[in-house]
Amino acid sequence: MRIDCREKAAARLDRMEAEAVRFEPRLADHSTAWRRWGEAGPAVVLLNGGTGSWMHWVRNIPALGDRYRVFAADLPGMGDSGLPPVTEPVEDLVRISATIIASGIEGLLGRSEPVHIVGFSFGSMVGAHAAARLGTRVETFTMVGASGLGLAFAGPGRLRKPEPGMSEDELREIHRHNMTTLLFADPRNADELALEMQVRNAGNVRIRSHTSAVTSILLEALPEIRARLGAIWGGLDPFLPARDEREALLRRFDPDTPIHIVEGAGHWVPYEGAEGFNRCLLGLLERGALPPGEPAAD
Q: CA nearest 143: which of 68, 58, 241, 51?
């Protein structure tokens, strides 16, 4: 549902956060903010994209909550989570973040409960490495708006940087421009709820993750993942690789990998294309684990 009032947008986010149970597992000196919605059902872990937080999933958590316990992390260095001990190069940032997330999953769910992992954009890179670390207990790994595959993509238009001395309204316009340039196919879909999230998230990010898009860091983890793979992109995502290349690559590792394209949506497909995205994601989660004794394809 579109929200065009800033006050209503803020109230929506505050209400969703109040409905969650919050956890802060630690690994050494690092604390990660996790939230859970739902009391019963299989566990689904959601990992946000760059300059994000749990709020990236605001239009997806309710759709999942009837069937699953939904755990959403703020990735290290974003949202309410602490700064990771390593922040660069970006490949090392991904790896240490994955170690922190995998440890958090073990702390919240124990060492044996099955789990589904869903990662958006930068979160897909972290999620892939976390899934590789957790092995066969990960039933499905779904990458959303993924890059870091070593494949070519068009890339977004030019972004703008905030400048010292800007007013709050001017800063919001900067965020609106960047959001519509990077995340949305149709600027009309960038409502006040999306803008409120972008403003909040941008104010809390303390790492630089955007350079990960042109790496092969997600590809690095794929041979080690033992879960069923799935992928979802928006049809107008500037990070969407060519069809033949993405299919050939992903099906090297899981020949049955479903690859869903939500037409008309941009990079933030869980938000802009929420209805179609939620249908696709629920279908991928219901595929479940590989049959007993059947390894994932090398």
A: 241
Question: Which residue matches tokens 């590789």?
Answer: 132
Strand order in the sheet with 34-37: 21-23, 34-37, 69-73, 43-47, 115-120, 138-144, 228-234, 259-262
Q: Name the average pLDDT for the chain.
A: 94
| DSSP-assigned letters across all residues of 204-217 | H--S--GGGGGS-H
User: Shortest CA distance to 119 belongs to which of 230, 252, 249, 240?
Assistant: 230
User: For 34-56, what is the mean pLDDT?
Assistant: 97
Nearest to 118 by CA among 232, 250, 276: 232
pTM here is 0.95
Q: Interior CA angle at 98 toward 94 and 101, to 5°?
A: 135
Q: Which one-letter amino acid corresponds to residue 39?
A: E
| pLDDT confidence tier of residue 297, bands split at 50, 70 and 90 | very low
3 state SS of 80: coil
The answer to whether 274 touches 60, Cβ cutoff 8 Å, is yes
Cα–Cα–Cα angle for 107, 232, 270, rounded to 5 degrees: 70
Interatomic CA distance for residues 32 and 21, integer angstroms: 14
Element (H, E) at 138: strand 138-144
Asked if 233 and 146 touch (Cβ cutoff 8 Å), the reply is yes
